[in-house]
Design brief:
heterotetramer; B: seven-stranded antiparallel beta sheet; globular; binds flavin-adenine dinucleotide; binds flavin mononucleotide; binds FE2/S2 (inorganic) cluster; Dihydroorotate_DH_1 (chains A, C); Dihydroorotate dehydrogenase (chains A, C); FMN (chains A, C)
């Protein structure tokens, strides 16, 4: 029997796979494809205090093995999420992680406090790393002191564990991770998108109306793996790893890099059944490789071999 | 809503860079609503990464066959054009909300106005309308005479006017020139094509109608918010201030969205 | 007639295309495939004062639309380059850019001064951004003050214009660019590779012996375009753009983003004829798009339309 | 040295996951040196990005045909295995330095020792040696009997011993077990296979010889320094402290490099 269970702060998961924030709405769309109870957990779209219209279109552009997006945190606002989206998720027996965003510390604190009191919310994910909003967000994600201060304040009001979602667009990701760990973060999510751009050579203008966008998909996977490898050795809190995962082998790579669980973003767009298919193929691959417990391979790439049982091929 | 490997039963270049592809499979039986689209994966791997939205152009339930017509434009559609009979194609769909048929009674008249690769979804619509006993009049706009496609097929279903921008065939000018010249006694219009055309058609129209929009998409199923458009003031009062083209559309009542 | 000429500090180029440092040795290998005189210029492998053995193998790994490398600045050392490599290049009538690396400021200054006196050397490219050396290098590339100091010192001794090659692994690329511009840099090269990693799930260990490596190839192109777009608007010195260029349309994208010339790295490995083929297809594409002068589209994505003549399609 | 679109004239699975592919084209006439390799682009696009190095296994100048034998292992070689007759393949080569033939006189004896997918380059070598009048003795190592390939072909050229790790056919054990059991009177050895095997063969050998190395490659032509190995003390005194496997090798005198 392969043990796929994961226990992370606030999250009792039957497998290590969840959709990534912003790539799965509030679950309703993909619930038409499969039973969401198959998921390890669900991370919903970023929630802000007020309703957000987001950026003008076009909001996405395709790049080699990746895509750019600049949705701009469009969301129906806290009230609507409390009244419609979260209650709808009550029918499922999976941990719900709410991604929280804002322009000011007060925004984050207000949304975090409120959302964390909702009974089916298992954890918060502080989105301090969205590259697509003009005010706030971006500064929180690149200044360790500010990120730490925000984390501390949110921790003080949150009823549930707090994960901080890190931006890869920094010189020193380890410094950021340590700062938020010290400030009390229960876990980390990484990575958010890399800031990128695509220009339409026929018009000479950026394809995305917002000009720059966040790069996701397989293209960024090596950067994500590297950052998780570095950070997981420097902190003691668990990491939810993401960035370009498209196959079960990718999941294993992220776990071995040091992630305790993984999130799937862009892959959902390529294949709406991505999450459940990855969960089942992960189990198959683990069997093939003789791995009987997800836990046993977390950080395998840097842990000394003796502590790990991995049969060679 | 499913993802299926449809089998390609035919592929033909019907005008320069315009291809007609027929596909067979079980999911075709769910493709009953004209104006919906399918989200197509043009390669096995991750290059190109995203699916391509293509309108349903025709469906034969007898043959379990779907027809799409597309222009080989960028990398994805060029790869699509390179596929051969008996290859399979990963198709997600049908997606979105199509043209409402019940707005028109038997004996009423519908004006269909299409431009370029906005024309294909109107064909399935025309067939469905004719079946309901609705009179279909069609105006199709092209750049030049070589580009014309589906003319014969639409002619079998009713009156048709073709326009070309260079005047090389039919009415010289845009579809709206033909709209202005022609009989204005129709009960509803249905249009699909580039946004400037949609705007002009809406302005020139003598009735209410429906427009089909395009936008760059991520998921195609309403989850990523890549493809939104603004709801018009009137309709936003009814609820959300935006519409998702992939799941609330691509077809909207002409007054429902800002274009 | 399409004007492909480019005039950059120290570089009179008949077209905007040159191979990127480290991807073309000192030219001898690719000279067996085609006449190097076809190139706009040539950038040679990083030169250090002493011979360097580089990192252990494996040194490369393939990733989605990209590759990781950790060569570790292996090179035969300044003496050998002066005696064998640069003289060999004298037979060609193209500008030669020498990529300079080191562990200390003194290293850089010594190599720069010496190399800049060689008669067929047209410019230096200060590699302050190599992610694959343990000492030096990396700090120079992420601290604006140190980068500026190094630039100033090298400028003081160099007989030829100095380009500074920026690392993308920083929070604020514009700050770095402005710092080195102010310190006297004649131009910028960007981007170097993104720091990444790949883990072999069969062994559980990083594929690359050095563990992390530099990500190059189409995967990083959106990041390069974004950084060039940002930096070109903030500085007045020209940019040699690179990062994932594989097609003539990619070159146009880099020029429109704000690069004055481009360099081709990884694409040489995929197709040894990449550079000459790109040069000829660039001319074809410019004709198709009605662009008659490379100069006219530099920065097209952010310059006001009036100043640019680009026929619409 | 050129890049050419060779036409695939045959593709066959000759053992589990082991494929033999034949290719035709002009550049084949330059492939005269056994031990050289070709650098193959397995897809049209950029996914996978890098070329794959594959040894030249045989060449027929009459038919202008190149044979390669490879194991469908990762993504690239699996894509290669999916190619069909008449598809084209983008091949760069021949690359590198092959096995030197002139070290052996007519009538002398060569021992060829190959393991797994290290075996293919030895076949072209064996043919060339036999043509020179050199006696060829071959030892081929496999995991198990099903994996065996090229046995018949080598047998036609001289003595051959097959070893299997599980003992399911031939000598039970490794190629070095066969080396130790067999006649030690040969003038030179030539070996290709996994590095531990090369080390063991070198240690067990009763003569000088040549080894062919593998390493992950970037350019394949000597420009990127991805594929270096260390020169042995003795040979580094003669010049550079390292060797590039793609251009100085893949074949080296056994004492020239550190393995
Ligand atoms: C609902 C809907 C129905 C459509 N129906 C048809 C049809 O029946 N026939 C037809 O020829 N075309 C149709 N299109 C347009 C078609 O989707 C694009 O031509 C196609 O996606 C371009 O892909 P590419 O690989 O050729 O271009 P690329 O430039 O390689 O595309 C890059 C990215 O941009 C997107 N993109 C580029 N142009 C468009 C566009 N015009 N609309 C949406 N996304 C775009 C692509 O999907 C891809 O994600 C439809 C679009 C939508 C939204
Ligand atoms: C000079 C030389 C000759 C070779 N001749 C043969 C042959 O005749 N038959 C055969 O089956 N194999 C041969 N190999 C090994 C063959 O190159 C690899 O099996 C192949 O590259 C693996 O590619 P993949 O797509 O299956 O694996 P992937 O895992 O997708 O490869 C990822 C990357 O790693 C590289 N890589 C992975 N394994 C190896 C390896 N063992 N050696 C070098 N690079 C590797 C790939 O080239 C690619 O760049 C040779 C290797 C070299 C260096
Ligand atoms: C369309 C889109 C919208 C996203 N929205 C959010 C968001 O609201 N909050 C957030 O923290 N991350 C958001 N992300 C980032 C993803 O959660 C994830 O970190 C990133 O896409 C990398 O994973 P992937 O490569 O699997 O997509 C979004 C990504 C995409 C592609
Ligand atoms: C194998 C390899 C070696 C490199 N060596 C150097 C180097 O010595 N000095 C340097 O400044 N950049 C070096 N680079 C970086 C390239 O010059 C270039 O900046 C980068 O690869 C991005 O361009 P590309 O995507 O076209 O390869 C190297 C890149 C590769 C792939
Ligand atoms: S494409 Fe994702 S919401 Fe429409
Ligand atoms: S692979 Fe580039 S030097 Fe050998």
């Amino acid at each position: 029997m392969i043990n796929m269970n994961r226990e992370l702060p606030g999250l009792s998961m039957k497998n290590p796979v969840m959709p990534a924030s912003g790539c799965f709405g509030f679950g309703q769309e993909y619930a038409r494809f499969y039973d969401l109870n198959k998921l390890g957990a669900i991370t919903v779209k970023a929630v802000t205090a007020e309703e957000r219209a987001g950026n003008p279109v076009p909001r996405v552009a395709e790049t080699e093995s990746g895509m750019l997006n600049a949705i701009g945190l469009q969301n129906p606002g806290l009230e609507h999420v409390l009244q419609h989206e979260l209650p709808w998720l009550e029918q499922y027996d999976i941990p719900v992680i709410v991604n929280v965003a804002g322009n000011t510390m007060e925004d984050y604190i207000y949304v975090s406090e409120t959302v964390s009191r909702v009974k089916n919310v298992s954890a918060l994910e502080l989105n301090i790393s969205c590259p697509n909003v003009k005010v706030g967000g971006i500064q929180f994600g690149s200044d360790p002191a500010i990120a730490a201060e925000l984390t501390k304040k949110v921790k003080a009001v949150s009823q549930v564990p707090v994960y901080v979602k890190l931006s890869p667009n920094v010189t020193d990701i380890v410094e950021m991770a340590k700062a938020v760990e010290e400030a009390g973060a229960d876990g980390l999510s990484m990575i958010n998108t890399l800031l990128g751009m695509k220009i339409d050579i026929n018009t000479g203008k950026p394809v995305i109306a917002n000009r720059t966008g966040g790069l996701s998909g397989p293209a960024i996977k090596p950067v994500a793996v590297r950052m998780i490898y570095q950070v997981s050795q420097a902190v003691d809190i668990p990491i939810i790893g993401m960035g370009g995962i498209h196959t079960a082998d990718d999941i294993l790579e992220f776990l071995m890099a040091g992630a305790s669980a993984v999130a799937i973003g862009t892959a959902n767009f390529v294949n709406p059944f991505a999450c459940p298919e990855l969960i089942s193929s992960l189990e198959t691959r683990m069997a093939e490789l003789g791995i009987d417990d997800v836990e046993s391979i977390v950080g395998r790439s840097w842990k000394t071999c003796s502590s790990v049982s991995l049969s060679s091929r | 809503m499913i993802v299926e490997q449809l089998r390609i039963t035919g592929q033909e270049e019907i005008a320069p860079r315009i291809y007609r592809m027929t596909l067979k499979g079980d999911s075709v039986q769910t493709m009953t609503e004209p104006g919906q689209f399918v989200h197509v994966k043009v390669s096995d791997g991750i290059d190109p990464l995203l699916r391509r939205p293509i309108s349903i152009c025709d469906v034969s339930q007898d043959k379990q066959e779907l027809t799409i017509i597309y222009r080989a434009e960028g990398r994805g559609t060029r790869l699509l054009a390179a596929k051969k009979t008996d290859d399979t194609l990963d198709v997600l769909g049908p997606l979105g909300q199509g043209f409402p048929l019940d707005s028109l009674q038997k004996g009423s008249t519908a004006l269909l106005v299409g431009g370029g690769v906005g024309i294909p979804p109107l064909y399935y619509l025309a067939k469905k309308l004719v079946k309901r006993g609705v009179n279909v009049r069609t105006i199709l706009g092209f750049r030049q005479s070589e580009d014309i496609f589906l003319e014969k097929e639409f002619r079998e279903l009713g009156d048709i006017v073709v326009t070309t921008e260079d005047g090389s065939k039919g009415v010289h000018g845009f579809v709206t020139d033909a709209m202005n010249q022609a009989d204005k006694s129709y009960d509803s219009f249905f249009t699909c094509g580039p946004v400037p055309m949609l705007r002009a058609v809406k302005a020139a129209a003598a009735s209410d109608g429906f427009i089909s929009l395009e936008e760059r998409m991520g998921c195609g199923v309403g989850a990523c918010l890549a493809c939104v458009c603004e709801a018009s003031d009137a309709s936003s009062q009814e609820g959300k201030k935006y519409r998702k083209i992939c799941s609330d559309g691509p077809v909207f009542r002409a007054g429902e969205v800002v274009i």
